[in-house]
Amino acid sequence: PDRPMILVDSKELAGGKPIISLLRNKYGVNPVVMQLTSADYVISNRLAVERILDTEFSASNMPVKVTDKVKLMCDAFEKSFVIIQTDCRKRVSSFNKLSSKYLQFSLHVNLHPSARVLFSCSFEESASLLSDIILKEQRNGFLIDVPVVLNPSTQLLFDFYHSCPHVTPICALRFAYHFPVVGMFLNNSVESLKKAGSISTRKAISILEYFKSEILFDAYS
């Protein structure tokens, strides 16, 4: 059977390379590395995961930086997971669930009913958690099912579709695959966008309205 495919933010090559290797070699996953803005791992059109080291809670600007990223992820995806991983570089963890910074972060996450926080002690455990999430999405039939290798022309299409606040990376890939010409996309019905992007009617309407308003604005500016 085909290996399940996920998208991985290129920044994870710096700090999460062991996870990428474990997913590929131990769990039979095909991680495709690309630049992502809304999450570290995009599992499906509806689910994404952000990985945070526990030492980030000691940084002075951490709550704003991380909570903004989590909000972006929760706004874009129906389901969101945050994995808080123990920083293996530190011999003694100073992470405290009762600290004001974590409580502030936890309160922010609780504003999003679809978000869930998981805890990990190592790269191995983070990879295992990701594998479990991937398997559940696979059983539910929500994994990536379109080509993710982009040539220069499809990269431009992907960037165009992904510029919309309502479009996830996988939705942008699906649009680039089904609508190789932007005119086809703009002249299509909400129902066609819904089917091509594998999205809800409400999201399809929002996306179409956004792009048409942007093009109208450009025409008059």
UniProtKB/TrEMBL annotation:
- Database matches in InterPro entries: Restrct_endonuc-II-like, RuvA_2-like
Instruction: Tell me a GO biological process for this protein.
Output: DNA repair
Mind telling me which Gene3D superfamilies this protein's record contains?
Answer: 3.40.50.10130, 5' to 3' exonuclease, C-terminal subdomain
Q: What is this protein called?
A: Fanconi anemia group M protein
Q: Which source organism does the UniProt entry give?
A: Parasteatoda tepidariorum
Source lineage? Eukaryota, Metazoa, Ecdysozoa, Arthropoda, Chelicerata
